[in-house]
Amino acid sequence: TKSDEIVLKTVGLTKEFGTFCAVKDVNLQVRKGDIHALIGPNGAGKTTCFHLITKFLSPTHGKILFKDQDITHKRAPEVARQGLVRSFQISAVFPEMSVQENVRIAVQRRREPLKHSFRSDLSLSTLNERCDELLEEVGLTGFENSKAGGLSYGRKRALELATTLALQPELLLLDEPLAGLGQEDIHRVAGLIRKAAIGRTVLMVEHNLSVVATLCDRITVLARGEILSEGDYKHVSSDPRVVEAYIGG
Ligand code: ADP
To answer: Which positions fall inside the ABC transporter domain (predicted)?
Structure first.
């Protein structure tokens, strides 16, 4: 049974670019423990919404609440310490370094839950242990000494996920985690997301609807900057407004 606790909430979230309104009065509620997807046709405002929540952009109006705290005017590093962590871009994986070194760096930047500050005073054995756990979690055991830059695209995603999980997110934000992957990697990475969501909440922007259908507990459909429909996949995919938006899109 899922909790009804809301971990992330936006209230009247609005972003204008000049006279153009990309996100309009969005009231989003993400339940604790859910894998929640933000979908919608091109130009719907998904990326803008995601950037607002991850603090890459500031809203024109509205509020963002994380665990009941107003984070609207906080910066990305501060909210990351509170547990709202965005997956790194692939480019943030250091390609010349080994898989192990990449994960180590991330573990050393982990948040310190009690002090809400980053620390790097782990003993070497704890550090190695934590790295091994993360690599196992994302299926990269055996690739410790491989150069990150030489990994397949799917394994780079896995490494990216490991470095993100190293920061101990409560709410993990993923921006199109399946984009650019082949069929086999799609299934592998979707499996990793499902595993990563155990004990955490995931909010993702994703285009791959068939994966969203099987992976996500709840889906918010955006169109023209506004919430068009919300619910489980069955609900939103049978909503005539959603069908229209995608076809008319
Ligand atoms: P999606 O991710 O759903 O495809 P976006 O959030 O990227 O949609 O974009 C929503 C709308 O906002 C689009 O019409 C886009 O052109 C516009 N937009 C996005 N970013 C900017 C910007 N920095 N300046 C002006 N318009 C923007």
So the answer is: 8-249
Q: Is the CB of 207 under 6 A from ligand 1?
A: no
Letter for the amino acid at 124?
Answer: L
> Do the domain assignments include residue 120?
no
Residue 139 Cα to ligand 1 midpoint, Å, equals 35
221-235 pLDDT tens trace: 999 999 999 999 999
Q: Where are the beta strands (DSSP E) in the chain?
A: 6-17, 20-26, 29-31, 35-39, 61-66, 69-70, 84-86, 111-112, 117-118, 171-175, 201-205, 218-223, 226-231
Cα 239 to averaged position of ligand 1 atoms, centre (Å): 24
What are the pLDDT digits (tens) for 161-220?
999 999 889 999 999 999 888 998 999 999 999 999 999 999 999 988 889 999 999 999
Nearest CA to ligand 1 atom 15: 43
ipTM of the complex: 0.97
22, part of any domain: yes
In a domain, 156, yes or no: no
Residue span of the structural domain in which 50 resides: 1-77+205-249
Q: How many domains does the chain have?
A: 1
Q: Of 238, 218, 186, whose CA–CA distance to 35 is shortest?
A: 218
